[in-house]
Design brief:
The complex is a heterodimer of chains A (258) and B (150).
Chain A (H helix, E strand, L loop, with lengths): L1 H23 L4 H14 L5 E6 L2 E6 L6 E6 L7 H15 L5 H13 L6 H18 L7 H21 L3 H22 L5 H9 L5 H12 L3 H32 L2
Antiparallel strand pairs in A: 1-2, 2-3
Chain B lengths: L1 H17 L7 H20 L4 H23 L3 H9 L5 H12 L3 H40 L6
Helix pairs in contact in B: 1-2, 1-4, 2-3, 2-4, 3-4, 3-6, 5-6
The chains are: A mainly alpha (258), B mainly alpha (150).
Chain lengths: 258, 150
């Protein structure tokens, strides 16, 4: 009986760890729920319930003993699709019986600790280049390409830098978009750029919470009302931070008489 | 047209890098993004409605993503996220915000509503393809092992 109990707890730990990594790496809530239930089922617990919101996971397993429930809190969320893919692979292996609970736990620990992120400069270059590309996609002119690249890159770098300085997400987004707006205006004033609007739109794209908005609507449609609404709120706050950063630039330049 | 193809490919792949997609799938992310954007672009160029074009494009993105995820055994989200990024109404949301600041509330609200509709239609496209996928998988599962369904 005691052995069975520790086994149940072990399984719960494995499932929760997998869920935690996935949720922190930006997986959709329904995917997290699905993976956790499947993993539990693969270990022989066909009756498990998971309740996932963007800020926490509640998971309970029905065994022969009274039902066990555990809760974990998620504070920080980033987007790290490689981790989602890795956990997905582990869960596949569990389902096919290749991993025991212990092995899976060790593997998950490795995934949790590992950092697969690209170096910062690669990410910044990617953000910069994509800003320029977005400018073209949104009918911008080629002369604006370089300004958008510079503004987008600078915005992304400052987003990460400010986030390290002050760990309040919305503050760093506000400052980053402020810098983008400032740069765009300066480029146009000095004659290096042509259309402020297009430059700003292109360079702001790496900051825009597009993934969040879409995931929010998707969660709502899937019936995950709580996580849909909270993701929607997060997306709205981000959009608001970006908008007000740009707005500040506009009002400053309007004040000067530009 | 060719510049649209190239830039959308690069933009989607670059977003894959920002979102830290696995290295092997970056090219596929770029391809999915390019496909979606070109469909959207062509439809809008031919005077079709933005909302409808977005639904179709995101549907194609999701279907391609699902096919890729079957082939390469990776979650769909990797492809759909990077692919959908060009469709996201970032520019529209920005325009709305700017009009709010300049006290043009009427234009601002209509733009904001449109941005919301567009993001809703992205989600509809994604969900719709997922429903079809689920339906197919369900029938396959039922055929393969009865009672073992999801």
């Amino acid at each position: 009986m005691d052995k069975q109990l520790t086994f149940t707890y072990e399984i719960m730990d494995v499932c929760l760890l997998a869920g935690k990594i996935m949720l922190q790496s930006g997986a959709e809530t329904y995917r997290v729920e699905d993976t956790m239930t499947r993993m539990a089922a693969a270990f022989g617990f066909s009756h498990s319930h998971s309740y996932v919101t963007p800020t926490g996971i509640i998971f309970s397993v029905e065994g022969k003993e009274p039902t066990k429930t555990k809760l974990i809190r998620i504070a920080e969320r980033t987007t790290d699709l490689e981790k989602v893919a890795l956990v997905n692979g582990i869960s596949r292996k569990i389902s096919s019986g290749e991993f025991t609970a212990d092995e899976a736990y060790q593997e998950l620990k490795i995934v949790e600790r590992a950092s697969h992120t690209y170096p910062l400069w690669v990410q910044s270059v990617a953000a910069a280049v994509s800003s320029g590309c977005f400018l073209i996609m949104f009918m911008g002119k080629w002369p604006d390409f370089l300004p958008a690249v510079i503004a987008g890159g600078a915005g992304f770098i400052s987003l990460i830098y400010f986030h390290r300085l002050v760990p309040i997400k919305f503050f760093s987004e506000f400052l980053a978009s402020f810098i983008i707006g400032l740069l765009a205006f300066l480029f146009v004033k000095t004659g290096a750029g042509m259309e402020v609007d297009k430059i700003i739109i292109g360079s702001v794209m790496p900051l825009v919470p597009g993934l969040l908005i879409t995931n929010a609507v998707r969660d709502l449609m899937a019936g995950h009302l709580v996580s849909g609404l909270s993701k929607g709120a997060e997306a709205f706050l981000t959009a608001f931070a970006i908008g007000s950063g740009i707005a500040l630039v506009f009002s400053i330049f309007a004040g000067i008489g530009g | 047209m060719i510049e649209q193809l190239i830039t959308s490919f690069i933009a989607s792949a670059a977003f894959g890098m920002i979102f830290n997609a696995p290295r092997k799938s970056l090219m596929k992310c770029g391809f999915v993004g390019m496909l979606g954007w070109i469909i959207y672009y062509m439809m809008v160029e031919n005077q079709l409605d933005t909302i409808f074009s977005t639904v179709v494009a995101s549907f194609v993105i999701a279907v391609t993503g699902q096919i890729f995820s079957k082939i390469y055994k990776t979650p769909v989200i990797i492809f759909s996220v990077a692919g959908v990024i060009p469709l996201v109404p970032g520019g529209m949301a920005y325009d709305a915000m700017r009009n709010f600041v300049q006290n043009d509330y009427n234009i601002a609200i209509s733009l904001a509503a449109k941005a919301f509709m567009v993001s809703g239609s992205i989600a509809i496209g994604l969900v719709f393809s997922e429903v079809i996928n689920q339906a197919i998988r369900q029938t396959q599962l039922n055929r393969l092992n009865k009672g073992q369904g999801r």
